[in-house]
Specification:
The structure is a single chain. By secondary structure, the protein is α/β, with parallel strands linked by helices. The protein is built from 19 helices and 11 strands. It is about 50% helix and about 15% strand. The strands form 2 sheets. The chain has a 7-stranded mixed beta sheet, with helices on both faces. Helix 6 runs antiparallel to helix 10 and helix 10 crosses helix 11. It is globular and about 80 Å long. The structure holds tryptophan (TRP).
């Protein structure tokens, strides 16, 4: 596993398909059918995989509480490659989620060597983008959040070095602070439940972050004092690490409960979900957390203008939100496309939108209208739409987007100043 996904690599080579096969990630496809107003990232299969999204869809549809959290490492300016995850967060907030954003300054400092001042400077840029897009909720910096740091310590009690080397390939040369930044991220993912109550939490991320999600789900399990299981004929409540007092309190909460050594059985007639909620509450009174397992969504990466992923390590692969107009133009007009070698071949065989950075940019962000996007795709494949024209049209859309986004960011400047 360690060699399969490295969250700190700038060129992740992970296939969601492979992870779905080998690591228990589920296809997102069946989830989108549950939403009559599925957004672009669902309709166009940009979000491809998930863990435990059912409970999020249930909460959205049933109008029950849920949380949404993601994190940004403030190690550079935000760019178009960050836009998808921001949209996912904001969409979930608009659909009833409590929003949380972690500014992963500890990770940026430990792993990328950034000064705290630089972290804060970049953080403010991310924050202005988020507010400009309609984010509402809590945004915190890891290093300034004491409850988070305490939670990270509790999480660290459940993580050992063999976990770290199996999951991330950490070895004797790995700095301790890098390992600490892992427990910080685990704490980030559980933090909404600490701050705003036990509820399902969705964490939209790129697929490279899945190791953190898996680790967090393991830690959340390990932190539980009890395990509630619906056995069909009865409900079993197993005391994992609960004290005798906590076990007695659980037994007392349910009339008819039978208390055994290390577990309690409830007779038929109890609702497992309700029992689970009550047990989590009792767990909290006895020093536990009662966390639910967090869920995640995995979106595919936006293709960079040079092919490959859009990544800060290749400046020509991306557009910063405050890029100068001549650079935006240069990068778009110079992008790799799915076009053929010659005009004749292009007319004869048509282009290949799947391999085209410009088409992908339209699909992800610049063309909201499905019919227009389809027409563009078909005209390209039919050899009717040439790359030059398509790039010019896309450039205009990008310019309009950037101008509008800049205006929106200016409007929320006061919120950023307060942060
Ligand atoms: N590690 C993430 C990155 O490199 C940032 C991050 C920190 C994060 N904490 C998080 C992402 C919690 C999701 C959830 O971009």
């Amino acid at each position: 596993m360690a060699e399969d996904i490295n969250p700190w690599s700038s060129t992740p080579k992970v296939s969601i398909e492979k992870l779905i096969e080998n690591f228990g990630i589920d296809h997102f496809e069946p989830q989108k059918a549950r939403f009559s107003d599925a957004p672009v990232f669902m309709r166009r299969n940009i979000v491809q995989g998930h863990r435990g999204y059912d409970q999020i869809a249930d909460a959205i549809i049933g109008k029950k509480p849920f949380h949404v959290l993601t994190g940004f490492m403030p190690s550079g300016h935000p760019h178009l490659g960050h836009l998808m995850v921001m949209k996912e967060v904001v969409w979930h907030i608009k659909h009833g989620g409590d929003g949380f954003i972690s500014i992963a300054d500890r990770e940026a400092h430990a792993v990328r060597g950034l000064s705290w001042e630089k972290c804060d400077e970049y953080a403010r840029e991310y924050i202005s983008c988020l507010y400009a897009m309609g984010f509402e909720g809590e945004i915190y910096a890891q290093r300034k959040n004491n409850a988070l740091k305490d939670l990270a310590f509790e999480a660290a009690c459940k993580i050992n070095f063999s976990n770290l080397s199996a999951i991330y390939g950490f070895g004797p040369e790995t700095e301790l602070a890098h390992a600490v930044s892992v427990s910080m991220q685990v704490a980030d993912i559980l933090y909404p439940q600490l701050a705003a109550g036990i509820a399902p939490t969705v964490v939209p991320v790129g697929i490279d972050q899945d190791p953190h999600i898996r680790l967090t789900r393991d830690v959340a399990n390990a932190l539980r004092l009890f395990l509630v299981e619906d056995r069909g004929t009865h409900i079993s409540i197993r005391a994992k690490t609960a004290s005798a007092e906590a076990i007695a309190a659980v037994a007392k909460a349910f009339p008819g409960a039978k208390k055994y050594e290390g577990h309690i059985d409830l007779p038929a007639g109890y609702n497992a979900a309700e029992v689970d909620g009550i047990v989590r509450g009792i767990e909290q009174q006895f020093g536990g957390f009662g966390f639910m397992l967090p869920s995640s969504t995995y979106h595919s990466f936006l293709m960079g203008f040079q092919g490959g992923k859009m990544s800060s390590s290749v400046p020509d692969s991306l557009i910063w939100f405050d890029d100068a107009d001549q650079d935006v133009k240069k990068k778009i007009m110079g992008a790799v496309t799915g076009g053929r070698q010659t005009l004749e071949e292009q007319k004869k065989f048509g282009g290949e939108p799947d391999k085209c950075a410009i088409y992908q940019l339209n699909k992800f962000h610049m063309q909201e209208d499905d019919t227009e996007l389809k027409m563009m795709c078909e005209a390209c494949k039919a050899g009717e739409l040439m790359c030059g024209t398509c790039k010019k049209e896309t450039l205009e859309r990008v310019r309009a987007f950037l101008a509008d986004f800049k205006e929106k960011r200016d409007e929320v400047a006061h919120k950023v100043a307060e942060w």
